[in-house]
Amino acid sequence: RALVVSLFFKSFLAISRKLCDAGIMPPDAVPKAELSGADVFHTPALRSAQLFERVASDQASHDPIGKPKVHAAALKQATGEAIYTDDIPRMAGELYLALVLSTKAHAKITKLDASEALALDGVEGFFSAKDLTQHENEVGPVFHDEYVFANDEVHCYGQIIGAIAAANQTLAQRAARLVRVEYEELQPVIVTIEQAIEHKSYFPDYPRYVTKGDVVQAFAEAAHIYEGSCRMGGQEHFYLETHVALAVPRDRDELELFCSTQHPTEVQKLVAHVVGLPANRVVCRAKRLGGGFGGKESRGMMVALPVALAAYRLQRPVRCMLDRDEDMLITGTRHPFLFKYKVAFTQEGLITACEIECYNNAGWSMDLSFSVVERAMYHFENCYRIPNVRVGGWVCKTNLPSNTAFRGFGGPQGMFAGEHIIRDVARIVGRSELDVMQLNFYKTGDYTHYHQQLERFPIERCFEDCLKQSRFYEKQAEIESFNRENRWRKRGIALVPTKYGIAFGVMHLNQAGALINIYSDGSVLLSHGGVEIGQGLNTKMLQCAARALDIPIELIHISETATNKVPNTSPTAASVGSDLNGMAVIDACEKLNKRLAPIKEALPEGTWQEWINKAYFDRVSLSATGFHAIPDIGYHPETNPNARTYSYYTNGVGVSVVEIDCLTGDHQVLSTDIVMDIGSSINPAIDIGQIEGAF
């Protein structure tokens, strides 16, 4: 109702302005400050600039590190020639798999009848929990608390109950709709974090606490104490390529999978578990993904497992690519969070203590939620030093599709709470937010509440650079005068600093492997454990190999990521893809350089091709594996107190100016400035693309 009245008033202002311009109404009939209420937003012409460190170019060397090299597959992707999983041509005898999904949030399955679907011509099979043993049906990325197919009970809307294999997609989806499922609804149905708190619906072993200093004493001595809360909703990944898998039986007891996943090893492991084969008979291959953002780190199994089972049992190729609505329904989102905090601070705004409760909405299964809440607990203070801390984390169990990894992995949600706290403190002590931020910033040498020392902490520099680059104070003054002169349109400016810890929270994942094969014509085939999701990882790996071998980048090729080239890979996630795999690539290159050194000494004037040819005829091995594990991490208060939690931190500061239309709630971001400290960039073009894309 309010919006209708606002739009009517908007049209009144627009008509009045025209009448004033035409001289029909006196020019001052409508106050000047009201007139801009008639305006609507138009997309402005975009203007942007990117500044980065330039690396001196030496003509003689082939070193591409630090140079803004074009993404290796950019032209193929831009022209549509790049091959994604579902672009693989149909095979002889291939079937399509369609999923039968739950239509209740919490219910017992009383009847499951696929006879009508199986009667259709071209339907080859129906699979459900009855086709697997209890052990085979239980799956999950860390804890096996999920099912390939729902077993007697469904825990969320969109849970997979069964799958139909048929001659084509249209038929399979039609048959899936004919499968009859009858339910007996169960109570309670828990959807929100508040409902989970009310029903005490938490996963076992939660809450968990991290403490530093003495919170009780700090609160007793505080000049000010403030209690507040904030919440953050979920978010859909919306990768352009939805989840997809194609399984091809090779012989009776071998399976090959082409899968859109950030974690091929996990798909291999779970497929082997479900079909009852050892892992050495299952190969998972991923050439490139059409985006992932964390949504394909663990949830790829929801499509890959039913597809692999159908292919193995029917001994025919089977594929499934989710429609967008199916993908959004079943795969989970970013974790919604609720934070309740109590903060103590001085008259000047210096924070002395904070007690905070972090609740995340995990959905119906654990997935990676334990790790997400831990990262939120470790990032809630953002860039601010708080001497006394008690932070608790709760993983809430609800009847939603299981929420999962999503760019930042709990970090953004935690930092969101920290920024709320800073703004509350600034408001109460009557100082500007920027002053309170600077007063509380960590300094180099400070310790976090999880006992990690900040060895270099350049947040002040990022902060100063961003203020200067964005002309912050100038814009602030312009905004104040704009807001005085316009009643129905208002502008605001905000600054947010960030600190993000680089490493997997789970210790054993901080490792990577690589395989390099050099062929007798001098060309190099590189395989590594990371997946190309569009983020440019392969391009960076080519650069690392070109520098390490000192050859032109054009001689090196990466074909795909496959579990039979590099085993036991970690997911491509947590912003460590290039750190881990790049070091493994360098390790392999160093082994090859050592073998080639005597030949290079004997033929100092030779070319790369001549050296390789000589090595081949001298029977020198031209294949090497590389490996890297991040050193000195894996902090644990009892078992490993001297280690770090994170390998290092990246920092950034962003400033945005936003205008809102107070009548309609419409808004527009007018300008944004971002300063990121990511060390010396391997490839500034790709890193800027990542930063802008993330923004």
UniProtKB/TrEMBL annotation:
Belongs to the xanthine dehydrogenase family. The keyword Iron applies. Pfam families: Ald_Xan_dh_C, MoCoBD_1, MoCoBD_2. GO terms for molecular function: 2 iron, 2 sulfur cluster binding; iron ion binding; molybdopterin cofactor binding; oxidoreductase activity. The gene is Xdh. Transmembrane segments: none annotated. Its cofactor is Mo-molybdopterin; FAD; [2Fe-2S] cluster. The lineage of its organism: Eukaryota, Metazoa, Ecdysozoa, Arthropoda, Hexapoda. Gene3D superfamilies: Aldehyde oxidase/xanthine dehydrogenase, a/b hammerhead, Aldehyde oxidase/xanthine dehydrogenase, molybdopterin binding domain. This is Xanthine dehydrogenase. Residues 1-22 form the signal peptide. Residues 79-187 form the Aldehyde oxidase/xanthine dehydrogenase a/b hammerhead domain. Keywords: 2Fe-2S, FAD, Flavoprotein, Iron, Iron-sulfur, Metal-binding, Molybdenum, Oxidoreductase, Signal.
